[in-house]
Amino acid sequence: MKIVVDRIKCQNHGQCAISAPTNFELDTNGDLQYQETFDEENINDIEDAIDSCPLQAILLSSDAVNG
Question: What is the spatial distance between Cα 53 and Cα 63, in angstroms, rounded to a whole number?
C-alpha cells in the first residue's frame, strides 16, 4: 500500500500533518509534503489522516502492478 494525495483537491489545510506527523508535514511555504510509503505500524495514524482531510484528497492505493 502507498499514500496518494490528489494535489488538485489538496488545499494544504494540514489536518493530515496533525493526525500523522510521521508521514505528512507542511513545509515552510505551507505546502504539503508526504511520504508515499509507510511502516505498517503507522496505519492507524494514516487512516486518521485520511478521515481528517476536509477535502478527501488522501487515499491508500495498492502498489502492486496488475499484469
Answer: 22
